[in-house]
Design goal:
9 helices, homodimer, 9 strands, 276 residues
């Protein structure tokens, strides 16, 4: 593991690190905020998965999460959204290829050699971070934005018992039925749509739900609301009586101004579960 | 004035606007955060002047100031750091020309036709903002980072009675004696160094001081400390018994991670003066 940068931040440390990823077949970069408390004891962790076009950096510099994580004594992990670099397949569209991994393990050419974001986040990166930092991986929660909200919800519901709470900002909820999803799931996973269902938060919510609290925030002026299909998640969660706080925030859009506004609520929400 | 973007943010609105600047001879862009309180009454304003290479955008997306400004009911103005565009002089160096206006009115070629950031911030932009938004320009305070800390301190001390309080993050304090300053003041103002002194915070502090509270934060690990010459400001302020809180923050560097960490303190500090 290489240290790219470390900056003092809210009494703790904001680091950026890279490492040779076996599952992604190349160098991967991630951000990690460690609160001051980690000097004494392992701290619980909150994952933040980012949206289309983002790297590890966007949320790290724009979401304002470190303040609240420092207050709560929680580590923040900011993974990248895809493998990158020369030799890694890409597409000219902003919503496919590098910056758009969609948190799946690709099985189709040309994506399958590197695009293994599911395994990377479910197995490889948590193992590395547990090994290298003072974190308590018995206490993990997860959140994300847009495509990253999709990732957070699908990881949380599939990896039963892994995460104590899950939240999302304007998540992609029903990718098997949206232009933000069908194109990517088809490209990465192929035409057999039965392989897609474990990557659809609304279908997972209908099928199994989440064993813990769920918080969802979306702006009423979100310019991508039709693509996110929030209503499918709301319906499925309501029908199964899922413990959930589902909020439509008046006037907010899809931007980091929206995310930063409600970040304190999300970190506090996760802290309650992590310290329960 | 043109609206570039407006996003809901912490109950208020983060806008980006551009306008034809008479003094800078071209289009200028600025960010403006208006808290919810502005819907009822004019609100006090806090200026944030940015550092080298920055635009109106850096602090707006990375400093986390809107949260605290919303709490205090204060507007935030994020001006650009120089004129820009084709037809505007530039230099290959990061610290001269576009992105490096140094908050002076250039008198020398090739800079003098456009580089009038002093007049822009002292006169033109406040007049425009007072005219277009629900702000109370009787209640203004000012802060900034690095080159912008220099701008904040020099504007505050020169424009007596204009600002109720001034603060700075890692400000350039003594540009007439630093490589961050001599090059630029020489290029913009010429070789007669008597014209430089009104743009040197340490000299101004020695000569006249500031009629109000001053807050300065700098990291002990700031990689540019030798260029900032904080000690000259500390000495001058101490000698004249200036009301001041001058803090060296252990382990922090020059980055926005440092700025965001102490932004709450700065906004709270200014709020006390603005609502006194």
């Amino acid at each position: 593991m290489k240290t790219i940068s470390e900056n003092a931040c809210f009494g703790g440390k904001q680091g950026v690190y890279s490492h040779a990823s076996e599952v992604c077949g190349g160098e991967m970069t991630f951000g990690l905020f460690m609160p001051a408390e980690a000097e004494n004891d392992p701290v619980p962790v909150l994952w933040f998965l980012s949206g289309l076009t983002c790297t590890h950096e966007n949320a790290m510099v724009k979401a304002g999460a470190q303040n609240w994580a420092a207050e709560q004594g929680i580590a923040l992990i900011f993974p990248d959204t895809s493998p990158r670099g020369t030799g890694v397949a890409n597409d000219e569209a902003y919503d496919l290829g590098q910056g758009a991994g969609f948190y799946v393990d690709a099985t189709e050419a040309p994506w399958s050699p590197h695009f293994k974001m599911w395994s990377y986040l479910a197995d490889e990166l948590p193992t590395l971070i547990e090994d290298q930092f003072e974190v308590d991986m018995e206490r993990q929660s997860i959140t994300g934005h847009s495509m990253g909200g999709h990732g957070a919800l699908t990881l949380a519901m599939n990896l039963e018992g892994r995460f104590r709470s899950v939240s999302a900002f304007a998540p992609i909820c029903n990718p098997t039925a949206s232009d933000w999803g069908r194109k990517q799931l088809g490209a990465y996973l192929g035409n057999d749509e039965s392989t897609w269902t474990k990557h659809d938060a609304a279908l997972l919510m209908k099928d199994k739900g989440f064993d813990g609290p769920v918080l969802i925030d979306t702006g009423t002026d979100d310019q991508f609301l039709d693509l996110l299909k929030l209503e499918t998640l709301a319906e499925a969660a309501t029908k199964r009586r899922q413990q959930m706080n589902f909020r439509m925030q008046p006037g907010y859009d899809h931007s980091y101004f929206f995310i930063s506004t409600f970040m304190e609520d999300h970190v506090t929400f996760h802290a309650e579960a992590l310290y329960a």
